[in-house]
TrEMBL record:
It is an enzyme of class 3 (hydrolase). The lineage of its organism: Bacteria, Bacillati, Bacillota, Bacilli, Bacillales. The keyword Transmembrane applies. Its EC number is 3.4.-.-. This is Protease PrsW.
Length: 232
């Protein structure tokens, strides 16, 4: 398989999911330039995280596929740095003006990371189309789900009175938990993973879509729209 088809197959899942969650913003879509910037920052995260993960594996002697590897070397650095980017770049930005915006930006960062990671894996297994489909269904989609969970709680932190610290903590801990669980299940169920991963992905998708609807329902812009409709 030539370079262009491999590259297209690797980028397409992340791009499609980003478009999907971007278009779910019902009331005031975010600036495309800012969403793409966060996606690009997510891409750049791959390199320092790879170095850190390698250092953790060598320094702590974590074996790939172990429980500690799944949570400490894989999930923790990835979700922490995604959280760090969203918090310090977007959380107090003027464009973050409704709860759903947290989901858009967190998903953008997560999918930026997942897309470059997918490109690397695609070039290693470029002739295996089934592998690329597996990557699209599981790791790329999984990163999107972790981004939804993170972004939902960023939105709750910013727009729920008295709950900021709690939801900022949830924005980190819940994606960390689900990401670690995801990786560990894949590691220990090499031959029968489908019996665990399909129910987990269905659960995460249903949970994420519910959070999308809840975030949109709590938008202050929704109330403005309703008032305008009443006046008309």
């Amino acid at each position: 398989m030539s370079v262009l088809p491999i590259l297209t197959a690797a980028i397409a899942p992340g791009a499609a999911l980003l478009c999907y969650f971007y278009l779910k913003d019902r009331y005031q879509p975010e600036p495309v330039s800012l969403v793409l910037r966060m996606f690009f920052f997510g891409v750049l995260l791959v390199f320092p995280i790879m170095v850190l993960q390698r250092a953790l594996v060598l320094g702590l002697g974590l074996g790939e596929g172990s429980f500690l590897f799944s949570f400490l070397a894989s999930s923790l650095p990835e979700e922490f740095f995604k959280w760090f980017l969203v918090y310090f770049i977007i959380y107090k930005h003027t464009s973050f003006d409704e709860p759903y915006d947290g989901i858009v930006y967190s998903v953008a960062v997560s999918l930026g990371f997942a897309t470059l990671e997918n490109v690397f894996y695609a070039f290693l297994h470029g002739s295996d189309f089934s592998f690329l489909m597996w990557r699209a269904f599981l790791p790329v989609s999984g990163h999107a789900m972790f981004g939804v969970i993170m972004g939902y709680h960023f939105g709750k932190a910013k727009f729920t009175a008295g709950g900021e610290r709690k939801h900022l903590l949830y924005a980190l801990l819940l994606p960390f938990f689900w990401h670690g669980t995801f990786d560990y299940i894949l590691a220990v169920t090499k031959t029968y993973w489908i019996w665990f991963m399909v129910p987990l992905m269905v659960f995460l998708w249903v949970r994420s879509l519910l959070k999308v609807n809840r975030a949109n329902a709590k938008s202050p812009l929704r109330m403005v729209t309703r008032e305008e409709q009443v006046k008309i």
